[in-house]
Specification:
single chain, 153 residues, alpha/beta, five-stranded mixed beta barrel, 4 helices, 34% helix
Length: 153
């Protein structure tokens, strides 16, 4: 091989190794950041999620709202009126996370009734608008769906 070809191959090899090293560092930092988001949810209101979706996209969040686990309407609504009249833009779609050997009862509190206020934890995705794209985002991999409290109790 010519000397010039060897130099070009050497430079390309160095560039490849540096790129692989930088990518590995970025991957480690990203995984650490992701683990931080997954351990402690960020408490946020449903209004904040809907108004500022980019700020919370990909984050592990804890949100309260009016829950619905109905067929084709698994969502968290801003108010009981939004739930009753199915105001999709005042809601986020919910995707419950159940492991292969798990059961939905591992996530959903038996006291949580449709149309009642619930607490939900999961990863917010601003690009997933749920069934028929009618919601203002989605909370995916829901790991907690808890309800059963009110002012009367």
């Amino acid at each position: 091989m010519k000397k010039r070809t060897k130099i070009i191959i050497g430079i390309l090899l160095v560039i490849f190794l540096v790129t692989a090293y930088v990518f590995n560092l970025w991957n480690l930092a990203f995984n650490k950041m992701l683990n931080n988001y997954m351990t402690e949810p960020q408490e946020v209101s449903l209004i904040q999620l809907i108004a500022h979706p980019r700020k919370y996209d990909g984050r592990f969040v804890r949100v309260e709202g009016v829950g619905s686990l109905e067929f084709e309407d698994t969502a968290l609504y801003l108010s009981k009126y939004d739930y009753e009249y199915i105001v999709g833009k005042n809601s986020v779609w919910l995707e419950l996370y159940v492991e292969e050997d798990g059961d939905i009862s591992d996530i959903v509190d038996p006291d949580a009734q449709d149309g009642e206020y619930v607490l939900v934890e999961g990863i917010f995705n601003m690009w997933n608008n749920g069934h028929y794209d009618m919601h203002a985002g989605a909370i995916e991999k829901v790991t907690r769906y808890e309800g059963g409290w009110s002012r009367d109790e």
